[in-house]
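Question (not urgent): is this output format expected?
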Amino acid sequence: MAGTLVLDTIRDGTGTTASITNLLNGGAKAWINIYAGSTPSIRASYNVSSITRTGTGQFSFSFTTAMPNVNYVVVAMPASDLTNARFSYIDGTNSAMTTTSFVVQIVAAPSSAQDATYLGVVVFGS
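Got this back:
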């Protein structure tokens, strides 16, 4: 069965829309799971239109639908079969976060750029 649902107002059991608003604002605005090798590829995604490898362990992500402002949060987690401790960060030196894109850099301790096998990224914001 297919159909269209059109609503003017959604209310929770208390008669307010606060919990619905919290649900919508608290959900992920974008996410992506990529193969992060020398030729990256999208394994699965939501609201991410493209990725570009810009250097060793560095990727630029473009949103399908732009964020309303740059006050969003990016959480990234690299995965690899290597034993180095790894972390990732938003690269503010080469490319600032914009409403249409952001850059993530994968780093192995203490501070060298590294490739990983896979990279998962989630974006939260209002």
